[in-house]
Every structure is written in C-alpha cells, then in structure tokens.
Amino acid sequence: MLEIYLKECLYFTANRLSRVITKMADDEFAVSGLSPTHAFLLMAVYEKEGISQKELGEILHLQPSTVTRLIEKLVGKGLLYSRVEGRLSLIYSTDKGKALEDVINQCWNNLRSRYSAVLGDKEGDDLTFQLYKVSDQLEHKE
C-alpha cells in the first residue's frame, strides 16, 4: 500500500527526482568548482551585465536572502562584483568570472547529454517543459 501511495504522491516523486538530478548536476559541475545554482546565476549575469539582485531572484525563482548568499559566495571567489546605484545593487561578472563561461556551458551540455542518454532528447525536453509549466501553475495558484 505504501509503495502505491508513494508512487502517486507528487511531493515524494518530485523530491526523489530532485535528489537524482541534483546528484547528476553536482557531478557534472564539479569540474567548474561551482554548484549548478551558482552557475545559473553567473549565466544570468553574463546575459545581462549590471542585472539587479531583484531581477536575479525573479529569473531564478529564488528568495532575496538566497540570492544575496549566492552573490556573496561568488564575490568571495572573485567571480562577481556589485555596484550600488541608488537603492539598487547591480551585479557584474569579473574577468575571472567571464573566463568560466565556456566551462559552465560545457557542464550544462554534459548534464543534458547525461540525462538525455537515459530519457531520450525529446522525452527529456518534454519532461522539462511540463515540469516548468506545472511549477508555474502551482507557484502562481492565487
């Protein structure tokens, strides 16, 4: 009975998937010296140098305090710097941070290849889009 219940429980299944994909991502990103979340934050900064902390939180679906901790860690590693303009804290990548862009992109490609080898390209993409859509629906239920 419990086995059936667990298979039908979105909470349990989503957390199980999170643990599995997090392990895969951590393995692939080990070469970069960054966590996947730090890498995603850097990618957002690459795309928009001078991005605000608020915008980073919105893009990454993270709370402001989490974004602050991530930025502080990357600043400590010399990969980002911030500049305060009025009430905004704007985030920029350093030369050291920019030098990681190709490595980060390769890590993402390796991760995608790894799970696509199991799921298939189309199935992996379809699952990703469906999970994104469902996450949006549940997050904005009100």
TrEMBL record:
InterPro entries the record matches: HTH_MarR-typ, WH-like_DNA-bd_sf, WH_DNA-bd_sf
PANTHER family in the record: TRANSCRIPTIONAL REGULATOR, MARR (PTHR42756), TRANSCRIPTIONAL REPRESSOR OF EMRAB OPERON (PTHR42756:SF1)
Keyword annotations: DNA-binding, Transcription, Transcription regulation
Superkingdom of origin organism: Bacteria
Gene3D superfamilies attached to this UniProt entry: Winged helix-like DNA-binding domain superfamily/Winged helix DNA-binding domain (1.10.10.10)
Pfam families in the cross-refs: MarR (PF01047)
Keyword DNA-binding recorded: yes
Keyword DNA-binding: yes
Name the UniProt record assigns to this protein: MarR family transcriptional regulator
Boundaries of every HTH marR-type domain copy: 7-136
